[in-house]
Amino acid sequence: MELRLAAILMVLLCSATDATAWSLFSSSPSKKAPPPQLDAGIVVADFSIDGGGKDPRGAKLMENARRRIAAGPATCWNAAYGRLFASCADIMADKELQSRLARRQQWHLSSCFQEDSGRPPLPNCDERSDMVHCRKRLTDSEEKVFLEFFLETNTLCHQLQAEAFKHSTERLVNNLSSSSKAAQEKLEVIEERSERLLQESENIHDSLSSIAAQTDNLTAASKAIGDQMGHVMEQSKAISEQSKEIARAQEELKAGQEGMRDAVDAGMAMVEESYRSLGDGMDRLKEGAGEHREGDQGPSATSCRPRWTVLQQTGRRHWERRPASRWRTRSSYWKGQEKAVRGLTDLYSFLAKATCKA
C-alpha cells in the first residue's frame, strides 16, 4: 500500500504546475487557503514549511509594507506597493527589465516616503523617460532615500518570492496529501471489491466443480441406466421368444382340443350304438325268457347263463371303451354314464340269475 501511495504522489508531483507561479505575487501573501477536505468530510492537517521566508530584514520590510497597504486603498503606499508586487514577477524573471522596473517602483516608494515624512514628493518622472534624467533632478537627501528603497525593492521581491514559493509548496503538498488520502481510500475500496470479486470467483469455481461432479455422476448414472436398458431389452427379447413358444403351444393345445372333441363325439356315438345293442339284447332276452316259461326249462336254463354272461361282458366292454376322463368339461356326464352302466350291469346279473333259477 505504501509503495502505491508513493508512486501516486510522485506522478502528481511530476504533473503539477510550477510551484513558483508569479501570479501569486499579485495577491496578499498573508491570506491562507482553508484546510483541504476529503470527500468524507475529514479535515487534513496543513503542511507547513518552517522557516520559509524568514529573513529578518525581509520579514520586517514585508510587515511594514503590509501595514502601509492596510492603512487605506487610496493612500500612496497602497498604489506603490501594489505596482511593486505586480511587477516583482517581471523583475525577478528578466534581468534586462530588472533594473528599469526596480528603479521605477523605488521611485514611487521614495515619493510616498517623502510625502509620509512631511517632505515634498519627488518630481514626476514619465514612464517613457530615462531614469538617469529623472535622478538628476533629485537632491542629495532624495537620492539617499531613492537608494535605500532600491535595496528595499529587491529585498521585498525576494521575500515575496520566498513566501509565494512557501505558500505554493504548502498548498501543493496539501493538495497532494488530500489526493493521496482520496487515492488511498479509493485503493482500499478497490482492494475490498477485489477481495469480494476473488471470493465470488472462488464461489463460482466451487459451483463449477460441483456441477462437474454432478455431471460425472449423471454420466455414470446414464451409463448404468443404459446397461440396465440393455438387460431389459435382452429380457424383453427372451419374453418375446417365450411368448411365441406359448402361442405355438396354445395352437397345439387348440389342435389337441379339437382332436379330443372329435374323439369324444366318436365315443358318444359308440356309447349310443352300445346302448342300442344292449336294448336289442334286452328285448331278445325277454322274448327268450317268455318262451322258456311256456316250454321246457331244462335246456333253456342251461343255455341262459352263457347269453347273460355275454350281455354282461358286452356292457363292461362298452364301459371300458369310454373316452379318457381328462376331458374335464365332460366329467359330470361320464360319471352319470358310469352309474347307469353299473346299474345295467347289476340288472343284467339279476335278470340272468332270476331267469336261470326259473
UniProtKB/TrEMBL annotation:
| InterPro entries, per database record | GEX1/Brambleberry
Domain of life of the source: Eukaryota
Biased composition of type Basic and acidic residues is found at: 282-296
Q: Which residues form a coiled coil?
A: 173-200, 232-259
Where does the secretion signal sit in this chain? 1-21
Q: What Gene3D superfamilies does the record point to?
A: Methyl-accepting chemotaxis protein
Q: Which UniProt keywords apply?
A: Coiled coil, Signal
User: DNA damage: is it a keyword of this entry?
Assistant: no
Q: Where is this region: Disordered?
A: 282-304
Q: What is this protein called?
A: Uncharacterized protein
- Look up and give the organism this protein is from: Eleusine coracana subsp. coracana
